[in-house]
Write a structure and sequence with these properties.
mainly alpha; globular; two-stranded antiparallel ribbon; 1% strand
């Protein structure tokens, strides 16, 4: 029965990594519901298979008079994140019951497919994966295959080759849809998790051929940053890179991988600049603010230069005596990570100060307006709404009311259905309790990684992906595809933590 549970999880994760990001029906407008339906279908099958397997195992254990031991074994596998997930699910139910539109809150149809039912199903999926994932690395091959095909379609699409004929029904919105993912912001959110994972995947990949394939994937991914019409990709991946840099400093040998990534970024920038100045493709390259600055001033060379310097320094260190090399490595590993953390703290404080001093409704492509009305809606809510929210996926009921009574003109539209910020989204829709639980979901994986005995590189790569999810969540918010991938990564990290504890 245990083998059945393990194989069920493996098949489910493989399908979610390959089928879900690639699935596309006949219309971009249906893409959210279509992906949600696919997720529900296979999630139901997984939950049912595991539930039946557990009941059979329990019956056998009871027959052998080992029922108590079976239950205790499952209970002892728990951790703090499990409790947070359970409470979050219960809070979502309570918030929905107290909401003004139970049906919409359950379906999440106005919040990119992430409503109460998605939360409940995802919590069950998390528990199944965290208990039944075996830690075998072959599952990452499916993640690679699925994401690489999505990436290839996306790059070809942005260059103007619509070979899947996906844009015919929406010619007026051609610029904001990409690949089989949908909106370019969803594309940015997806890459914000996938790219950081593969930046560290080479560390636990022994085969040179596989490492070469991963580096090629990263080269194409970096190229896509320059040609995709969105800044949020840089933000999501950039925040994840903060963790990647810290992790690389922990072992000098890891700096080689980081240096190669910097060089690949510069090579991708060179190709993008050439096509930008010499448009041989059907479409000229779209450049948002960050890409334009990088290409105009050739700032994309900086990561490559840093990468070359690191490689030269590593080669130079290799010529030193064994004793001196150990001392130098110890110095780098002991102090560079701490200095990096200090720089991150200073950067966060500086960013918050700058945003507070320069806040306006047009900030970050009018996200400032969304955040303004969402937060004021939270402040205007009654005590119950402040504590448990207006109901998952019902941010629009709050923003509509706030815009209606604003003393300046703002036209309400579909943009105000989601907060474009995970924490603010749950602060309004699930109250203070929901926001606190969401923050705990963000922080506990770092605690679990720090408490691990082995700290496998696979666990670090998963944590890099979860960091990318936090980064994209600051400006995009929950979206069905990224939410599903996030839940899988969360379950996998909990599984690694469980296996580490039992050793």
């Amino acid at each position: 029965m245990k083998k059945i549970r393990e194989e069920s999880v493996k098949m489910f994760v493989a399908l979610m990594f390959t089928l879900l990001p690639l699935y596309y029906s006949d219309n971009y407008y249906n893409i959210l519901n279509d992906k949600k339906d696919v997720y529900y279908l296979f999630a139901y099958i997984l939950i049912a298979a595991v539930a039946c397997s557990l009941m059979i195992s329990l019956a056998v254990s009871i027959y052998k008079k080992q029922g108590k031991a079976f239950v205790c074994n499952i209970w002892q596998q728990g951790n703090a994140l499990d409790i947070v997930m359970i409470v979050f699910a219960l809070l979502a139910v309570c918030s929905t019951i107290c909401s003004t539109d139970i049906r919409t809150s359950l379906s999440g149809e106005k919040a990119w497919g992430v409503g109460t039912w998605t939360i409940l199903v995802s919590v069950l999926v998390y528990f199944v994966i965290s208990r039944c994932y075996t830690g075998k690395s072959d599952i990452w091959v499916y993640l690679y295959l699925g994401s690489f095909v999505v990436l290839a379609i996306g790059v070809i699409d942005r260059l103007g080759y619509d070979f899947l004929i996906m844009h015919d029904e929406i010619p007026l919105q051609y610029n904001i849809f990409i690949s089989t993912i949908g909106n370019v912001n969803f594309w940015a959110a997806y890459l914000s998790m996938i790219v950081p994972f593969f930046m560290l995947a080479t560390i636990f990949t022994r085969s040179r051929v596989r490492r070469a394939c991963i580096y090629f994937f990263l080269l194409v991914a970096y190229f896509s940053l320059f040609i995709t019409l969105t800044n949020t990709t840089y933000i999501g991946i950039g925040i994840a890179v903060l963790f990647v840099v810290w992790y690389s400093f922990q072992k000098v040998i890891r700096l080689k991988n980081f240096a190669i990534n910097g060089i690949l970024f510069s090579v991708a920038g060179m190709v993008a600049e050439f096509l930008w100045k010499h448009p041989y493709t059907p479409r000229t390259i779209d450049t948002d603010t960050v890409s334009l600055i990088l290409l105009q001033h050739r700032l994309y060379f900086l990561p490559g230069v840093a990468g070359v310097v690191i490689l030269v320094a590593l080669l130079g260190a290799g010529t030193l005596s064994e004793d001196r090399k150990k001392k130098l490595d110890c110095l780098v590993e002991r102090f560079c990570g701490k200095i990096w953390i200090g720089l991150i703290v200073i950067g966060v404080i500086g960013t918050i100060y700058y945003l507070v001093c320069n806040y306006n409704l047009e900030l970050f492509n009018y996200r400032g307006s969304i955040w303004y009305f969402a937060f004021h809606g939270f402040l205007d809510g009654n005590l119950s709404q402040k504590l448990i929210g207006a109901g998952p996926a019902l941010l629009d009921t709050v923003t509509q009311a706030e815009i209606a009574k604003a003393d300046f003109y703002v036209e309400w539209n579909w943009l105000y259905c989601t907060a474009h910020n995970d924490v603010l989204e749950y602060l309004v829709t699930m109250g203070v309790f929901g926001a606190v639980l969401k923050i705990l979901m963000y922080l506990l994986p770092y605690y679990m990684y720090a408490k691990g005995k082995e700290r496998k590189p696979q666990m670090a790569a998963v944590l890099a992906a979860l960091t990318g999810f936090i980064g994209q969540g600051l400006f995009t918010g929950p979206y069905i595809l990224t939410y599903v991938i996030y839940v899988i990564f969360l379950g996998v990290l909990a599984a690694y933590y469980r296996m580490d504890k039992t050793k």
